[in-house]
């Protein structure tokens, strides 16, 4: 399949003949076919792309080293105008599990993971372009949590594998993104006493902003990343530990009325500065939301907030049972999160169902989130991660196609799930809690109306909606995110 994004009719149209592109498109495998058909592709590509102005097609390789796996993205761009953003022609990706952090005591194995993934790059990028195709690796949560010297050893091994490859290794090619500041901005000179490794050369931009750039690069008939752009999309992300919001406000007042300056990110594109409202709420992710609703966060016991996170859970008579009316009243089980195992149960008084549950969750969400001024003016929101997964679990959307939902759809379904959970043992016992948390977070947290529509998706135009594309664009165009 072929995708041409980000050009306006006439002016930015790529000059590579469309017939040629159509031929290329026919020859190109979809990501699922990567393994079987790439070999043939590498023979076809160089000969076909060479007759066109060679400097106009280029490639970039971005590794996303996450906590559960490592993913390679090989992007093919067409550049028609040095002043403009390139056009994304194709994305090839492949992933392996587990993540690099699983090899904490055998860095050579981590290097081997990267070496294996590099085969995708060798097969996608024509041999003649290897020397000028950059390799970049950005690590997130998994490596960030390791002791600094262990993470450093892993990264050095990756760097070594990069250098022995035939590709270009730019400065700052391997680094860890500072996740605790995913919405908070600090200049690179801020000294760090923590166990993270700072970006060696240049301060790493936060993933929320990079994901916004990725999605807006891909959405719309034409690129949304233009000055005076009117129709950008905002993004909502819900992880286990934190939740993020990023959008381009229409009104100055939304930026001016943000709590502190680190709710605002600026970056430069096409000679103008875009100002985003962006924030990451640590502790308001879905799993942390469960923990807080169950009363197991802070004070309540040996949770991630206590000092004893490395100790095994308290045993025997000391085991506390955490209860919530968001769980079926007769439910009793163990639940593990963040290296801890908790005893959890329904409400012992028998209170269960949506109304009780909502009241419990409101106590957790109320006041935790700043409600942006005129949130819904001008931005349509895409929602990712657990927003998507739980909408699938609740039967609201298809797990491949995704879908469009109103906030009230989450609420309606939360009510149904919660009020029927005693009678329906087939649904996950946590679905009522999770759906109610999402409803409450959207309405009472961020302040969305029930009529607000959200696009639930994993991909935009068949390209993974992740920070990786934004990070690649930033690498080439130094967007000066700050
Ligand atoms: C190819 O493109 C580059 C940059 O866009 C330009 O400088 C060069 O003159 C072009 N060459 C040909 C043969 O068109
Ligand atoms: C990450 O961000 C936090 C909060 O902004 C800051 O205190 C810390 O120094 C940063 N760490 C690195 C390695 O940049
Ligand atoms: C970009 O800004 C510079 C400096 O302000 C100016 O000289 C230049 O003409 C601008 N370019 C465009 C394409 O607007
Ligand atoms: C149920 O949870 C509430 C609130 O967290 C707590 O006050 C109460 O003691 C718990 N009940 C039992 C029987 O554990
Ligand atoms: C947890 O750690 C903090 C700072 O390290 C300390 O002040 C506090 O007393 C500790 N709490 C417990 C319960 O050990």
TrEMBL record:
Which residues, if any, are the signal sequence?
Answer: 1-32
Copy the pathway line from the protein's UniProt record.
Protein modification; protein glycosylation
| Molecular function GO terms recorded | ATP binding; nucleoside diphosphate phosphatase activity
Enzyme class comes to hydrolase
Question: What function does the entry list?
Answer: Hydrolyzes nucleoside diphosphates with a preference for GDP, IDP and UDP compared to ADP and CDP. In the lumen of the endoplasmic reticulum, hydrolyzes UDP that acts as an end-product feedback inhibitor of the UDP-Glc:glycoprotein glucosyltransferases. UMP can be transported back by an UDP-sugar antiporter to the cytosol where it is consumed to regenerate UDP-glucose. Therefore, it positively regulates protein reglucosylation by clearing UDP from the ER lumen and by promoting the regeneration of UDP-glucose.
Q: Which family does it belong to?
A: Belongs to the GDA1/CD39 NTPase family.
Supply the name of the protein. nucleoside diphosphate phosphatase
């Amino acid at each position: 399949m072929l995708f041409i994004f980000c050009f306006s009719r006439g002016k930015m149209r790529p000059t590579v003949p469309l017939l040629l592109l159509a031929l290329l498109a026919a020859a190109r495998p979809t990501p699922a076919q990567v393994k079987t058909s790439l070999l043939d592709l590498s023979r076809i590509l160089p000969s076909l792309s060479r007759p066109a102005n060679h400097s106009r097609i280029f490639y970039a390789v971005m590794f996303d080293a996450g906590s559960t796996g490592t993913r390679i993205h090989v992007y093919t761009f067409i550049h028609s105008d040095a002043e403009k953003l390139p056009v994304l022609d194709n994305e090839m990706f492949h992933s392996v599990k587990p993540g690099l952090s699983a090899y904490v005591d055998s860095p050579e194995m981590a290097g081997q993971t990267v070496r294996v993934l590099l085969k995708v790059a060798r097969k996608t990028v024509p041999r003649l372009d290897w020397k000028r195709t950059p390799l970049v690796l950005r690590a997130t949560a998994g490596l960030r949590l390791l002791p600094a010297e262990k993470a450093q050893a892993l990264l050095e091994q990756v760097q070594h594998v990069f250098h022995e490859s035939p590709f270009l290794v730019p400065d700052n090619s391997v680094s860890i993104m500072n996740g605790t500041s995913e919405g908070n901005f600090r200049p690179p000179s801020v000294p760090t006493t923590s166990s993270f490794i700072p970006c060696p050369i240049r301060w790493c931009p936060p993933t929320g902003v990079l994901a916004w750039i990725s999605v807006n690069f891909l959405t719309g008939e034409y690129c949304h990343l233009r000055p005076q752009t009117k129709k950008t999309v905002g993004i909502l992300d819900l992880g286990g530990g934190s939740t993020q919001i990023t959008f381009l406000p229409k009104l100055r007042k939304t930026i001016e009325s943000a709590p502190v300056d680190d709710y605002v990110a600026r970056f430069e594109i096409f000679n103008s500065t875009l100002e985003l409202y962006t924030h990451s709420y640590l502790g308001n992710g879905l799993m942390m939301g469960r923990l807080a609703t169950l009363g197991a966060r802070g004070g309540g016991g040996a949770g991630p907030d206590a000092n004893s996170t490395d100790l095994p859970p308290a045993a025997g008579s000391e085991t506390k049972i955490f209860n919530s009316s968001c769980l079926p009243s007769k439910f009793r089980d163990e639940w593990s999160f963040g290296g801890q195992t908790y005893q959890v149960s329904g409400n012992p008084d028998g209170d269960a169902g949506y109304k009780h549950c909502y009241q419990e969750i409101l106590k957790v969400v109320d006041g935790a989130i700043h409600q942006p001024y005129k949130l819904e003016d001008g931005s349509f929101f895409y929602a990712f991660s657990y927003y998507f997964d739980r909408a699938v679990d609740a039967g609201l959307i298809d797990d491949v196609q995704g879908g469009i939902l109103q906030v009230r759809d989450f609420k309606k379904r939360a009510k149904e799930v919660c009020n029927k959970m005693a009678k329906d043992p087939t649904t996950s016992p946590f679905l009522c809690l999770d759906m109610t948390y999402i409803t409450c977070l959207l309405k009472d947290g961020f302040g969305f109306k029930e009529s607000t529509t959200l696009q639930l998706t994993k991909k935009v135009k068949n390209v993974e909606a992740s920070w990786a594309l934004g990070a690649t664009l930033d690498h080439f165009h130094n967007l000066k995110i700050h």
